[in-house]
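Journal club prep — side note

Before the paper discussion, L.F. wants everyone to see what a predicted structure for a comparable chain looks like in token form. Sequence:
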Amino acid sequence: MRVLGIDPGLATLGYGVVDTAPKPNKLKPFTSITYGFISTPKDTPIGERLTHIQRELRVLLRLYKPDVVCVETIFFFRNQKTIIQIGQVHGVLALTFHQARVPLHRYAPLQIKNVLTGNGKAEKKHIEIAVKKILGIKTKIRPDDAADGLAVALCHFMLPGVQLKRDQLKKDITKAKLERAQLRKTKVEKKLTFGKK
């Protein structure tokens, strides 16, 4: 499963794409495919800024083909203007992923922090440390918004309910493979039996 995580913002939108590792193990179950940010100039009309964000999101969808998109929900802001801007970005996100038919999930900042660090009040630096450790990233993740995007994606993977669904999916796939193998074996045996005199 491939997840695109997004830390929404009008000036800077952070994103990170996380997938299950090619050879997943307890030490490194996930791998980072890419991470970065989308920025828009402050002196540009709001319509152009939102259009630019949507255009770049569509590029990400086309390049990395995520199965799921996860977004951090609106946090408390004292500045009313900031709340309105973030709300507008959320609207663009919802529209873009709906049109692309990609499932969209939302997680609260406290929920993301708690899943990754065990502390719902963890600071940004602690989130980055957790993200780097889980994904095996050695270098500094810049900007912080990109680290937050990766954190959102990891939150989706690491939630107990999601993990159970992934484990069940693996079991179902394994069972289906065994059933197909058994069916092929039965067909071969029937052919051999039919060919005997």
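L.F.'s comment for the group: The beta strands are 2-7, 12-20, 30-39, 68-72, 104-107. Keep this in mind when we get to the figures.
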